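Lecture 7 notes: from sequence to structure.
We start with the chain below.
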Amino acid sequence: MDSSLKVASTIAEIRALVQSCRAEGKQVGVVPTMGALHEGHLSLMRAARTRCDVLVSTIFVNPTQFAPGEDFEKYPRPLDHDLDLCRSEGVDLVFTPTPDIMYPAGHQTHVEVEGISQPWEGAHRPSHFRGVTTVVLKLLNIVLADVAFFGQKDYQQQLLIRQMCRDLDVPTRIETCETIREEDGLALSSRNAYLSAEERTQAVKLSTALQWGLEEIAGGVQDLSQIRQEMSQRLTAETEFVLDYITIVDAWSLEELESPRDHMVAIAAATLGSTRLIDNMLIPPFSLQTLNDR
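Predicted structure tokens for the same chain:
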């Protein structure tokens, strides 16, 4: 590709650009985002850059994955800064549609993955995953990339997207990349910008509680209900966190576990002030390579 970044705002434009690359036999990678890019997004772009000939990023704040009362209106939209970051990471094409383009008048079709969409995030944000899977399928159909890159931080989300692609025979390969963290362990998120200085100090307890659970399991503790209870207490003690869940689940079914098995994930979601944070950690010997090879 030419070194200059190309920005397309319509489906016809981005399809024509991608098709010209594919006609040259180039492998296309895509990093779907809602903008407000941070190091977590940039790490996905770097992973894609090393594995693909052409790198596409999409920037679209998707209204259908926000429930009434959530932060759709205030969600940050620093498009010019995001495009500068895309240039710095060697992104070739950026797709920046509007809601009217993604959901034109008369739009009636939605995609819903049953089963693993129901617990955890699905229980606390009932309409969220339907919006995610619908927009991701649309973006994959529009861009027609060979590989799409997602972050581990949204563990349940990437699991749903994998299931959707298998069930609907979507030819795009899904690659999940590790969570990027601040030096103190807080998982990077566009929503971290909402935290006050005091909340930011407390926020790290989300990752430290999960890390404590991992260390207990590595030390041989078998009673996961005991670990779950202690993680909850560690998270909420002397903080303003309002807990949605913190637990250990099967990596594939998301079933809450009472005793260890080979493939497990510690997951958590809690609200601090007005900011809802999520995090997760894979429990060894489970690894992202196992996930991506599945």
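Points to note: The domain at 6-177 is CATH 3.40.50.620 (Rossmann fold). The mean pLDDT is 96.
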